[in-house]
Amino acid sequence: MATVDTLSLFTGLGLSEHKARETLKNTALSTQLREAATQAQQTLGSTIDKATGTLLYGLASRLKDPRRLSFLVSYIANKKIHTETQLSAALEYVRSHPLDPIDTVDFEQECGVGIVVTPEQIEEAVEAAINRHQSQLLVERYRFNMGLLMGEARAVLKWADGKMIKHEVDMQVLHLLGPKTETDLEKKPKVTKPRPEETDWRTAKDVVENGEAAGQTVSLMEQLRGEALKFHKPGENYKTPGYVTTPHTMDLLKQHLEITGGQVRTRFPPEPNGILHIGHAKAINFNFGYAKANNGICFLRFDDTNPEKEEAKFFTAICDMVAWLGYTPYKVTYASDYFDQLYAWAVELIHRGQAYVCHQRGEELKGHNPPPSPWRDRPIEESLLLFEAMRKGKFAEGEATLRMKLVMEDGKMDPVAYRVKYTPHHRTGDTWCIYPTYDYTHCLCDSIEHITHSLCTKEFQARRSSYFWLCNALDVYCPVQWEYGRLNLHYAVVSKRKILQLVATGAVRDWDDPRLFTLTALRRRGFPSEAINNFCARVGVTVAQTTMEPHLLEACVRDVLNDTAPRAMAVLESLQVIITNFPAAKSLDIQVPNFPADETKGFHQVPFGPIVFIERTDFKEEPEPGYKRLAWGQPVGLRHTGYVIELQHVVKGPSGSVESLEVTCRRADAGEKPKAFIHWVSQPLTCEIRLYERLFQHKNPEDPAEVPGGFLSDLNLESLQVVEAALVDCSVALAKPFDKFQFERLGYFSVDPDSRQGQLVFNRTVTLKEDPGKV
Fold first, then answer.
1. Which candidate in 166, 427, 496, 628 is catalytic?
2. Helix intervals (H) in 509-642
3. Which of 446, 452, 695, 727 is in Cβ range 3.0-4.6 Å of 234 for a Cys bridge?
4. Can you tell me whether residue 607 is helix, strand or coil?
5. pTM of this prediction?
6. Of the residues 22, 271, 483, 573, which is catalytic?
7. Annotation marks residue 254 as catalytic
8. Helices 339-351 and 438-448 meet at what angle, rounded to 10?
9. 601 catalytic, yes or no?
10. Helix (H, G, I), strand (E, B) or coil at 498
């Protein structure tokens, strides 16, 4: 009778009778669901609607900590959690906060409790997404990936109902395109893409630079063309809002056009004191991409004005990463190339009464309202003599600076132009003991190189006034500074100082540890450069700061690797299987397609012998309901072999653990089709495989409100799992560092540079796409 009551209770949640009966077979799930449903009924005092029932089932089937059941059921029953997105956030929150008590205010904030998303907001978000992709939509029509539109709307309205977003997308797309035509219903022809080794450097570079890489719907080049961004045309700087003109401006612009021929010129100006990270990838794509899209040129200029923090390895790594992303600078330059000119201009600035030597100490200048300099009005000749004394090393560090006479947009008064540093420079040696600051150097180097569009992130907006002021104070060509939003990722730290702390504490190995989001780390993990460029294109050229979820970047990685990473088979936790009636006297050679969906891309050969190894999880003596892999009375197929194996004997060790299996095999076409096909290896290589998870537990590890103990207290102690004796099929034996594979049913993997002859090391790049229907 109790079973009948529970069955009725489960069907009352909206489960089909079949689903309810299957649930009853799982004791742990049915017990948890019964408790959840009973509590919800007591709270509601009435029957449970289907939407609430669906959430309760999702809670019961996914909650790992039963202590939190009552807490979460109350939120669902009271409609405070009413969407799948909120439930996922709630489950993630209780997973990452195992200790009592739960901070309900923080919990509700993280789960979107009380946030109402109106139909008007959904309409606006969908309309904005469609506008961004309209040109491609009109070309591809209903073949366009509508999921991208829904994803972008969801990124803006995290707590919106997914069904409402989909409905709005369907309605607006129908309004834009009209009903489907016969052409829309035709099957999209398959495009065969060349394998990496079939693509020469020039072709690969063109694919990236022309923005036609896989996974992009609106190419980066389309987004960056001048008419799309509404930037000024070369020589028309004065038409830009906020641009400051002088009586000399038009003559200087005329000379500028004579030198450049009206060509667009941009620059990517990194400081060589750290490794580039994912945010720099957007900057690289924006600067190099804008020049390319508008038939211009882009400089790679190192802002090497801080010698004590600069190292040769950073110069090399930055050049490597720019090339890895597919870009070639028009010229590699250094701020130090212009030290003589910059010094001469500093002297001229003093002559013009626009700069002075100051003796205030650095600590006096900190804070929002530092006292004005008592030396601001000292005589020009005195400042000239003192500046020359600074140049000759007659002042200790911190005793004197050269300051410019202006008030910046953020209220900062008289920024420093030069300071004393007795540190040899990597290029100029001991020639200089005074070095220019960013505020002084940047705009003048842009002027020297006749940059047309000085593209920088939003935090430099406060320096725009000093940018224009300094060029105009010296009567030199003044470029236009344009700001765009930074690209950030959740669950990441990219600060150079904090990465150094992670390295120093042993939390990560170095700047290229695959758990970081530096570009060298992403390359080492196996992220293709094409995927990173696609990600930047999908993020778009936005003015607002953008903080993205890592899984959106991972989706771009999967899109590329699905088409480029050949398949292989690997076993992480092996179980030996002996085929007692193996059909041949010696091993068979099995032809395995590199890409099962497209066998025209070739095959590789693996041995199939009487001893094979399978994943230990692919066998269960006492399987739970719904288990489809190897068990007593339940045979499975071995992928690509054409054979099915059936269990005959389980060999156990002294402790009772399963040591091996004895099975028989038959041709797959000689009987009933098995419920599942599993991967396997025979005569395998022994390799090391490193499995990576998020380095941090919280979305914003640097936010003291979210992580009061600081980012080092938020480390995920399970972010790296090393499988030292994984088994991989012999087709990968000749793989080189950075070669990429899909290990069937496991994920995408890349060969790590730690690999040695006979001892390959693989990094898991990303897992396979989640498939709820796969058991």
1. 496
2. 519-525, 529-539, 550-564
3. 452
4. strand
5. 0.69
6. 271
7. no
8. 110
9. no
10. helix
